[in-house]
Amino acid sequence: MRIKATIARTLAVGAALTVTAALALAPSSSATPNTPAAPENHGKKPTVVLVHGAFADASSWNGEITELERRGYPVIAAANPLRGVASDAATIRGLIESVKGDVILVGHSYGGQVITNAALGEKNVKALVYVAAFLPEKGESALDLTNKFPGSTLAATIQTVALPDGNTDLYVKQDLFPKQFAADVPLSQAKLMAATQRPVTQAALTEGSGEAAWHTIPSWSIIPTGDKNIPVKAQEWMSQRAHAHTVEINGASHAVLVSQPHAVTAQIIAAANATTR
Prior knowledge:
alpha/beta; Rossmann fold; seven-stranded parallel sheet
């Protein structure tokens, strides 16, 4: 089906190993399981706003929420509508503007597309953290960026659902979800994720991005090298283009935010330390 071919290589959701502040601030590095978390800034802590991607929901961030709150960070895990880039970004922008004080904005997968647009012009957003995510330039869609490099196997796993408004919702087939999306997550948990996944519209994956906030806001990027949704080379290319401080997590899946929340948390803390002193 053409819809499946069109979706060929796009999106989704994940979490990772602990990294040092030095690693998080380096232009590019590789994380290891036993590296300590970044030291923390003991001043007033920024609010961390977490934005999930397609085929996921806000509970994907549970590991990060637990760690961040334990360390004194206010946290909001947003409900990303997954209906379209501009409309989703407007929803997240409203949330950002409701926060008093500094914000660290974190996006997973398609959520990276959303935060790139939502943060534009928002002066309280001090850092962008991308987790297995898209870092688009103006005019680029998630589909454009996925197709730029080989490596995604998402297309063959997609199930389509026609909507009354003429649009199409996309799901990952439940029996294929664990291997495709969350290969390093315990199988029982991956099956729960498959059953509770939230669909993204086809239109959202083909909609071009607006002006990119990463041109003016410092960026961090976590790249799981076992990602089957967004090609690793695409993630590396986007991160380099954005001059993002990058950490690669060897063998981690697209669901790195779920499987390895320590590294994701450490990267968020590193971004907070570097930009909100």
